[in-house]
Q: What sequence folds into this?
């Protein structure tokens, strides 16, 4: 039996809205990737698209209002808004249109489908983009306010000739080899950290030093990095909501980073998940998959940016939170105080 045939009954449950859980997790339980599960639905709610996203991205502005979703293993980030103010630089895209704020890495936008499934609220149709490993990198859903003619034209223009339900994906990538702690020039790393002028240079610093984010934070230590309890999101979000503190929440994967900017309001605890349930922004974070958290300080143009960073079981970053700020202004003191109030694991254990 082919993989698509073995996945077809599971897909039928998803398409009918009777499956319990996220397609990503159901596919993993079945020994497949989410992209392979969606491909198995071709002819039953799924259609393969053939898109060069570098040239096609500007057409998303024609769609008007959409719901966009970017997620990783631990956190799902959902926004309602419209595409616009887009720029493309070689293999990277920026969307800076208020509610839709994205950093796109096109090398990972490899397999695309348009998918219609049923839910308790009726049919749900979305464009789903996956990487070469079969992982979802971004999804764009039609809403009641989407320009239907533009949506239909987009799908029609990019429907692929090949509608095979089989999809070959690459085996998971090997994690890069990192230097042992003893081989890291910690003094040099601290000096480079202290000399940062732009937070966007942080990744290059890590790469040049041959260390992961968590390894760098652990070795550098205070005042630049302090581990806090893994329930930092539970502690932080209600206080931010109560004070209407404008914050930024970055959630991403290798193919896309999605950003919320502004206050958050409705915080909901439900069955092991902490959720933000605001009208145009929802976030779902699975507590058991967030295993470490850090308060991190980075110099930038004469000031300091404080972030709260969350990490999953594999040590991968799953979210970064910071204060909303004017580039010409200092960090909001309410945010600095809130991040500073988060307890360390040792403090929490002693309490």
A:
């Amino acid at each position: 039996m082919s993989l698509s045939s073995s996945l077809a009954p599971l897909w039928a449950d998803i398409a009918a809205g009777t499956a319990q859980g996220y397609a990503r997790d159901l596919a993993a339980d079945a020994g497949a990737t989410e992209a392979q599960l969606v491909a198995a639905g071709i002819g039953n709610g799924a259609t393969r698209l053939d898109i060069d996203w570098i040239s096609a991205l500007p057409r998303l502005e024609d769609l008007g209002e959409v719901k966009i979703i970017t997620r990783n293993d631990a956190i799902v980030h959902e926004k309602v808004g419209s595409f616009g103010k887009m720029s493309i630089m070689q293999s990277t895209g920026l969307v800076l249109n208020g509610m839709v704020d994205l950093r796109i890495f096109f090398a990972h936008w490899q397999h695309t489908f348009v998918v219609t499934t049923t839910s308790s609220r009726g049919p749900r149709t979305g464009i789903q983009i996956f990487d070469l490993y079969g992982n979802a990198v971004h999804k764009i859903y039609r809403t009641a306010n989407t320009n239907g003619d533009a949506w239909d034209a987009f799908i029609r223009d990019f429907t692929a000739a090949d509608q095979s339900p089989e999809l070959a994906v690459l085996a998971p990538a090997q994690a890069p080899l990192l230097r042992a702690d003893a081989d890291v020039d910690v003094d040099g790393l601290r000096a480079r950290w202290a000399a940062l002028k732009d937070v966007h240079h942080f990744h290059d610093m890590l790469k040049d030093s041959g260390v992961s984010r968590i390894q760098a934070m652990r070795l550098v230590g205070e005042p630049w990095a302090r581990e806090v309890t893994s329930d930092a999101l539970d502690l932080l979000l209600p206080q931010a909501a109560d004070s209407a503190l404008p914050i930024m929440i970055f959630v991403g994967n290798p193919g896309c980073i999605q950003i919320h900017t502004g206050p958050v309001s409705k915080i909901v605890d439900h069955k092991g998940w902490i959720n933000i349930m605001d009208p145009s922004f929802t976030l779902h974070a699975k507590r058991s998959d967030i295993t470490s958290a850090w308060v991190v300080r980075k110099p930038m143009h004469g000031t300091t940016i404080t972030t709260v960073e969350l990490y999953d079981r594999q040590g991968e970053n799953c979210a970064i939170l910071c204060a909303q700020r004017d580039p010409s202004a200092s960090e909001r003191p309410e945010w600095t105080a809130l991040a500073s109030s988060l307890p360390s694991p040792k403090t929490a254990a002693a309490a």
